[in-house]
Amino acid sequence: MANSIIVIGAQWGDEGKGKIIDLLTRQSTAVVRFQGGHNAGHTLVIEGDETILHLIPSGIFNDVDCVIANGVVLHLPTLFDEITLLQKKGVSIDHKLHISTLCPLIFPSHIALDNAKEKTLGSKAIGTTGRGIGPAYEDKVARRAIHLSDMFDAERFLEQLNRLMEFHNFLLVNYYNAKPLDVLAVGDEWLSYADKVKPYVKDTALFLDSINNSNASILFEGAQGTMLDIDHGTYPYVTSSNTVAGAASTGTGLGPRDFKHVLGIIKAYTTRVGSGPFPTETQDESGEHLGRVGVEFGATTGRPRRCGWLDAVAVKKSIINNSISHFCLTKLDVLDGLEKISIAVEYDYNGKIFTSFPSISSDELKRCKPIYREFKGWEQPTSGIRNFRDLPIEAQDYIHAIESILSKKIVLISTGPDRKDNIILEDLFT
Ligand code: IMP
C-alpha cells in the first residue's frame, strides 16, 4: 500500500492545514479535497507571498495532481476566481486539476437560504460562513442536488435548475420573507461555465484508484475540524459535512483500506469562529495575546476568531473519531513571550469530573469548566526555528507534555507561516 495520508483538523478548524498540506505535497503524487466547500480558507505563504485557497487543494503550487472529489460542494464562480488568481501568480492549472462529475453544485439560492436562515435564528445563529454550504448538503441528502456532470446537457440542466430554484424561491419568499432569485439569470451564468469546467471533469474515484495502483502516495486534505463534524462535533454549532477522516473514504469513492496514516493537526492553543461551546476560551490578556500574535481572523470571512488554551479533552476525542496516528503542532511561535501556558486535561461539569469529552448537549457543554495543567512559558522566540534542539527548554517541555497527555507522537512542528518554518521530526512517507 502507498503511504497515503489523511490530514485532518483535530480542533475547530483553522489549525493551519493549508501550510502543512503544501509541505507534505512535495512527497505526494496527488492532493485531494474530499468534503466541505468554499467555506474553507487554507492560507499558504510562499517566499512572503500569501495565497488563500477556498476550493482548490493546497498542493497546487507543486507539480502534483489536485483533485476536488465528490464529497465537496462546488461553487463554480469561486473555482474560476481561484483559477484566475493562481494563473496570475504563474501557477499552471491545466492537466493538474481534476474535479468529480459527482460534486453537488452550490447556487446563489443556497447562499441566499443560508443567510436568510441565519437571520431568522437571531441570537441562536450558527455563525456560518454564509457560503450556502448547509443548504447545498441539505439538497444532496434530500436527493434534489444538481451534480457537476448534469451541466453538460443544457436542456436537462435548466429543467433541474428550474425545479430546484422554484423550491428555494418558495422557501425564501414564504418562509423567510426574503427576495426570490432570478432563475434565468442563474441558468445563463452557470451554463457559461460549462465549457470552461469540462476539461477538468472526470470520474475522480477511478483516477485516484489508478494512482493508488501505481503505489504512489496521495494526500487527503481535510477542511474545517473534527469538532465541527456534522455527527461528532458540537451540534448544532457545526458545519454540514463530515469533517472526520472517514469522510476521505465516502468523499472520494476509495475504500477504508486505501489510507495509511491520519495526521491530526493541532494548534499550540485553540481557536473557534462562529457560535457554540468552547470550554477553554479565554477573554483575558492571554486570549488577547493569542488573537493578536496569531493574527486570528477567519481566512474566509475575516471575522475575529475566539481564542483559548489547548484543549486536550477535545483533542483526545479527535484521536478516537479520526484514528489519528500522528500529530502536527502548528503556531508554536504564537506562545512566545507568555509567562504561563495552560492545557485543559479534564472538565468539571457541576462537580462531576470528565476526563474524556462528555456526550452532552452544546448548551450543557457551555457550562463545563476546564481543569488546567500549567506550564512555564519561554522568553526566547521560537519563530522560524527548524531544529528541535534549538527550541527553548520550556517549549521542548511543553511539546513533550502534549505528547504524553495525548499518548501520540508529534512528528512535525510549524514555527511560522512560511513554508520553510518547520521542525520535521519524522517523515511519514518513509
Ligand atoms: P458553514 O460551514 O458555513 O455552514 O458554517 C458552520 C460553522 O462552521 C460556523 O461556525 C463556521 O464558522 C464554521 N466553519 C466553516 N468553515 C470553517 C473553516 O474553514 N474554519 C473554521 N471554521 C469554519
In this entry the ligands are: inosinic acid
Mean pLDDT over all positions: 95
- CATH H-level homologous superfamily name of the largest domain: Adenylosuccinate Synthetase, subunit A, domain 1
In whole angstroms, how far apart are the ends?
12 Å
CATH first level of the largest domain: which class?
Alpha Beta
- Give the count of helical stretches: 12
Main sheet makeup: 10 strands, mixed
Number of domains: 3
Shape: globular
Percentage of residues in strands: 15-25%
CATH topology of the largest domain: Adenylosuccinate Synthetase, Chain A, domain 1
CATH architecture of the largest domain: 3-Layer(aba) Sandwich
Radius of gyration: 22 Å
Strand order, largest beta sheet: 7-6-5-2-8-1-9-13-17-18
Element pattern in H and E: EHEEEEHEHHHHEHEHEEHEEHEEEHEHEE
The structure class reads: alpha/beta
Structure description:
Helix content is 31%, strand content 19%. The longest helix is centred in the middle third of the chain and has 22 residues, at 154-175. The mean pLDDT is 95. The chain is an alpha/beta fold and 430 residues long. The protein has three domains: 5-103 and 199-258, Adenylosuccinate Synthetase, Chain A, domain 1 (3-Layer(aba) Sandwich); 108-195, Adenylosuccinate Synthetase, subunit A, domain 2, CATH 1.10.300.10; 266-424, Adenylosuccinate Synthetase, subunit A, domain 3 (Adenylosuccinate Synthetase, Chain A, domain 3). Inosinic acid binds at residues 13-14, 39-41, 126-129, 131, 133-134, 223-224, 228, 237, 239-240, 273-274.
